[in-house]
Amino acid sequence: MKLRFSPTSPYVRKVLIFAHETGLAAGIELVPTNVWVPETDIGTVNPLGKVPALITKDGTVLFDSPVILDYLDHHHDGARRIPLKGKERWSVLRLQALADGILDAAVSRLLESRRPEGERSPAWVERQRAAIIRGLDALEAEAAGFGEVLDVGQITLLAALGYLDFRFSHEDWRQGRPRLAAWFAQASARPAYAATAPYDPT
Questions:
Q1: Residue 150: what pLDDT?
Q2: What is the per-residue pLDDT for 201?
Q3: What's the whole-model pTM score?
Q4: Neighbouring-strand partners of residue 31
């Protein structure tokens, strides 16, 4: 398999964390991809022009990250990270959606901040910041119930909180959220988290 990736993308990171946690990482070739340069070919792989995109052994291209994780969960030998049925399945998928929503808001906020000063929308930035805060507060209330095995929801949350540390380190999301902070301290000590740390490719 080949994974089109950027080392700063949190959506890529969740795929990589999953791959390391499930023993699939060695079988995935990483193909560095800069989606922002004019000459990028990512549009020929993913028409949306985004990473991650996974090319399977038979040439099928999969995107975006939830689809890739679902595929990978069918191709490892360990316990399923997305339960097949029942309340547990919807709980995991809901957590993934909440963590992805925090990521979406954080990425949108970052991109808005990089626009020319006269073109930025303070109201839009505040809307994204507020969404992140509400999401984190909801997760603080739920963190005590997280299981020991990192499911897809927790993996996505791990990537999301790591992204907040990476891009918004001046804002302490841990403040007032001791249970979420304690969970992150434990989960981020796993080798898969260290192995997938974001870095500037330039």
A1: 96
A2: 77
A3: 0.96
A4: 4
